Amino acid sequence: SQQGEEDPQALSIQEGENATMNCSYKTSINNLQWYRQNSGRGLVHLILIRSNEREKHSGRLRVTLDTSKKSSSLLITASRAADTASYFCAPSNQGGKLIFGQGTELSVKP
Amino acid sequence: EAGVVQSPRYKIIEKKQPVAFWCNPISGHNTLYWYRQNLGQGPELLIRYENEEAVDDSQLPKDRFSAERLKGVDSTLKIQPAELGDSAVYLCASSRETGGLYNSPLHFGNGTRLTVT
Question: In CATH, which superfamily holds the domain spanning A5-109?
Answer without folding.
Answer: Immunoglobulins (2.60.40.10)
